[in-house]
Amino acid sequence: MEFIILDLDTATEEQLKAAIECNYRTFRLMSSKIETLKKANEQALKKAQQKKEETFHQEAPVEEVVDDIDAEFEEEVAFFVSDVKKLPEEAIEENIESVLPSRKHYEYERLLKRIIAELFKDYNEIEEYMLTETMDPEEQEELLHDQAIFLRKIKAISKQLTLTIEEITQTPAIENELIFVPTSGGNIRVFDELDHIPSNYYKKFESLFASIKDGTFKGVKKMQGSLEGLAEVRDIPSGSRVTFMRLDKNRYAVISAFVKKSDNNSGYQKMVENHYQSYRQQETALKANLDNPEFLELHKQYELELFRKLSPLATSKSPLSKKVVQ
Amino acid sequence: MLSLLRQIHGEQSAIEEQLQLPNKKLEFFQEFFKKYQYGVMKNYYEMDKCDLILASLAADDDSIPFEELEEIINSNRLFFEGMDMDMYQTFADTYINLVERNTLNEAYFHLINGFVPSEEECEEDIDKKTISLLMQLAETYEIPYRDFAKILKVFEYELALNTNKDGFAHAELPLMHALSITRLLDETKEKYLGFSDVLIDPVYKKHMTSSLKQKTKSAMQGIKTAVEEHMSRLKRYYELLASEDKSTRRRLVKDQSQYGKVEQDLYQMLKFPETVAPEKDILKLPNASIRIAALKQVYSHNLAIYQQKENEYNQLAANDASNYRILLANYGLSPSDYEVGTIMNNPLVDVENMLEQLQKVDIKTPTILLSILQTSNLETVSNFVGLVQKGIITTSALIDNLSALDPTSKDYENMMRNLSLVQQQKLNPRYFSTNLESLLADHQLFKTNLEILGKYDLVSSLKTGIDSSFIGKENLQEAIDTLLELGYESNLEECLELLNHKDRFARLKLLKSLNMGVSTTEELLTVLTTEKFIVPDSMIKDYLYNAVPFYLPTPTGSTTKRNMDLSKLDEFQTSSRTYTIGGVIISKNKVSSNLATQRQFARPSDRLLHSILSGSYLSNQEVESVITTLSDKKIYVKK
Questions:
Q1: Which residue does chain B place closest to A31, by CA atoms?
Q2: Which ipTM score applies to this complex?
Q3: Is A185 found in the same domain as A165?
Q4: B313 phi and psi angles, rounded to 5 deg
Q5: Is residue A279 domain-resident?
Q6: How many Cβ atoms from other residues are within 10 Å of residue B508's Cβ?
Q7: How many CB atoms lie within 10 A of CB B285?
Q8: CB–CB contact B302 A73 (8 Å)
Q9: Distance of alpha carbon B38 from alpha carbon B33, whole angstroms
Q10: Same-domain status, A254 and A182
């Protein structure tokens, strides 16, 4: 589709006539094609516009709320803060270390600082209360006393944070003792339970028991409500759990070992409650035996057996004693 | 064009003149047949001999224009009236003689110039004698020689017919024929009239033999037939002439109208250069040169329109979706119909240019290219590529902020205005280019924050390579005040990027309240950037205690307009930006800003204290310390 171009100086009438006619025909054809192209382009643009509108009319994606709370850490904090708060005022400085996580804990400093923050929060609540509320001198004295305790604990924990390497090395490492809670039939419950758990979980359980022993309390979670005092260490990816209770400064009653991936499961809740109730029935007897060297020695043996069972590289093949000598 | 229009006007005028001109010949014949009603023999007898000669000559040929012929006849009327067949023959012989002797021109010469040959000449030269005889004949009829010479022309014509029409009888010669008719009419006029009398007169009629009657009647009938034939021939010529005249006039009117149409067409071409001009009217013009000139105009005029159309067609054809697809495929793009549709908002040539430019700054990822082509245009892409090439922004920053490439977006507008402001303030645009967020910030906010940096003398802390997105964030002054009051003035000077984390400054407040302050800038950055801070950010407010609200003077509602003299605080100035009052660091700018906005205090000292404490996070002891220090200096009066 091209137009005829003439040299007007030499063009004849016939050539002019032919060129005019021919060019006009080309022009008509071109105009028609232009219209077609325009329509095609308009349709494409219209289609695009429709699509754009459809896209814009789609519901905006719900913005994902980013939860900045590290649940595992928060549960560990709750576990330790609970023990710190329970620490009697008589020997705060002496006993503070026993209620704190082991230095081996990979978030030791963070945990301690957070515990301080928690104590300071309580301190400030009292401060604010005293500023805003009227009270009698007795109450005020009581509150000031509480504040003083909080400050002592904060100071004691802060001291742990500022210990020199020498001071740390002079301090013996924590080694908690495990006391194994028996079933009503007299068997050690965790041994029974481990017998029914595939051995590929043992490595996880080994680390959980070890974390109770060294005070790092892997993935520790403090139970709430009716399960007051009960805690569990967890390997969250595998769902391996060990429930335990603190018996004294460095002894922990090992109640149960099991695999459960979800916390929000009625079966799990029921099982934990049953084990807790079972423990409660024996708690007095267990605590009463804490001064009994034979009892302690026996549980040391159980402990050795436990780690032999859980560690495939263990040398001793002797079966675990399942009967408890009360 | 104008010369063509002039030519057309000229043609129109000429036609108009032509139409106005009388057709003398036609008028003559009209008059002729008016005078001598066709078919009425009686009228023919009264016919003027010269009229018949003129009509006969005029009807025969156009060699001599009618006006000239009429003039010849009229100026030699006496001669023609007196002419009979003998005279005709004599004159014809004389003429032939002159022609044969090749002296016709000489005869003309003598007659026209009135040079009468002398007797001697006549005696010596027979030709001269002939000429002399002609001149004598003119004298006889009292006709000027010059006019008489024209008779020669009539014979030239008459005899030329004879010559040309070889073998034709004399009756074919118009003059001779006319003379013959007049002779017949003359001869029979009396007879005709006499015959009539006879027919009327019963005595004469009685004595007339039937044979004579019959002979007379037959003779009369023969003459009548001859006359009527001649008149009929003249009549036919007249009718033909009338028809031709009508036809000529019709043609002239048509031509005139045609010129008018073409003239209109040409004016339309001038008036509407975008309208295609027609050539049909031009083709009907009688004048070839005008036709060609007009065709050239139409050709050129239309070609200009066609070429525009051709450009439009070429552009549209080039901008066809398939062409876009081909181009995009070369860059690894295979867009959907929807995507092509949006890209087609830009001409193909622009899209190609955009793609080339984007390649130069290493933007080659198909999805990114597609996104840019869908929302941007050539000018915007060129602007941004220019900024990348000058090192003002980085390719990665551009990729992270593709919305800026949409020229209709607020981001684009903000960026251009912000860059312009940076230029006005003679700042290095690279201070803001690591993270485009700052340049894309709302212009008013960007401007305000630059002013704030100036107010705190922190502009010099802007450096290339830093992430200055804080410049596009709200509450910059509050953030600076917080860092200053937490004691991080030198860290701030060293690293303005701390301001990017103002949302996490509560962490620093918490650490300070826990007496866990950090000192180095690296530590600060670690605290502000770690995802494992001791308390989740969403919960920090529960751990922070601020005594200030418990100590702030309560606004009274009444307004004090007394200006507080800030120079009283000069003694507490520890840096150009801070006071330290009772061990507590207070931002100077915060105090002055608060003073400017907080007026509703009955006591000026309350207003000052409020301005000092407002916005700070302090413990009871710190607030007490501030108040006590100010009281000791009698700047603040305790209630």
A1: B309
A2: 0.72
A3: no
A4: -65, -45
A5: yes
A6: 24
A7: 21
A8: no
A9: 6
A10: yes
Closest to B93 in 3D by CA, of B101, B374, B561? B101
What are the DSSP calls for A183-220, one per residue? -TTSBBHHHHHHHTS-GGGHHHHHHHHHHHHHT--TT-
Count the domains in chain A.
2
Q: Which of A170, A195, A210 is the last residue of a domain?
A: A170
Q: For chain A, how long is the longest CA-to-CA vector? A: 134
Q: Please give the pLDDT value at position A313.
A: 64
pLDDT at residue number A52: 54
Chain B residues closer than 8 Å to A107 by CB: 532
Please tell me whether residues A299 and A185 are part of one structural domain.
yes
Domain that holds residue A265: 177-310
Residue A102 lies in a domain: yes
- Tens of pLDDT along A148-197? 999 999 999 999 888 888 878 877 777 899 999 988 788 899 999 999 99
What is the 8-class DSSP label of residue A245? Answer: E
Q: What percent of chain A has pLDDT over 90?
A: 30
How confident is chain B (639 residues) per 10-residue block, as mean pLDDT? 88 91 90 85 81 86 83 88 84 84 88 88 86 87 88 78 49 76 76 53 59 68 81 89 91 91 90 87 90 92 90 78 84 82 85 93 90 91 90 85 88 91 90 82 94 94 88 93 94 94 93 88 94 91 88 74 78 94 94 82 82 90 92 82
Interface membership of A132 toward B (CB under 8 Å): yes
Which residue, among A19, A302, A176, A126, has the nearest Cα to B296 in the 3D structure?
A19
**B319 to A19: CB separation less than 8 angstroms, yes or no:** no
DSSP letter, residue B361? T
Q: Which tens digits make up the pLDDT trace of B565-594?
A: 788 899 999 999 999 999 999 999 999 988
pLDDT at B402: 86
C-alpha distances out from residue B330 to B326, B355, B366, Å: 7, 10, 11
> Do residues A179 and A316 make contact, with C-beta atoms less than 8 angstroms apart?
no
Co-location of A100 and A200 in the same domain: no
Please tell me whether residues A144 and A221 are part of one structural domain.
Answer: no
- Please report the pLDDT score of residue A206 as a whole number: 93
Average pLDDT over residues A247-263: 88
A39 in a structural domain: no
User: Are the Cβ atoms of A121 and B338 closer than 8 angstroms?
Assistant: no
Residue A88 lies in a domain: yes
Q: Which amino acid is at B582?
A: G
CB distance from A128 to chain B under 8 Å?
yes
Say if residue A275 is in the same domain as residue A221: yes
* Contact yes or no for B316 and A41 at CB 8 A: yes
Compute the distance between CA of residue B236 and CA of residue B239 in angstroms, rounded to an integer: 5
Question: Of A127, A150, A170, which residue constitutes the final position of a domain?
Answer: A170
Q: In this structure, which amino acid lies at residue B235?
A: K
The whole-angstrom separation of Cα B319 and Cα B330 is: 16
Query: Would you say B534 and A110 are in contact if contact means Cβ atoms under 8 Å apart?
Result: yes
Checking if the pLDDT of A252 tops 70, the result is: yes
> At A249, which CATH number?
3.30.2310.20
My answer on whether A191 and A124 are in the same domain is no
Mark whether A79 and A156 lie in a shared domain: yes
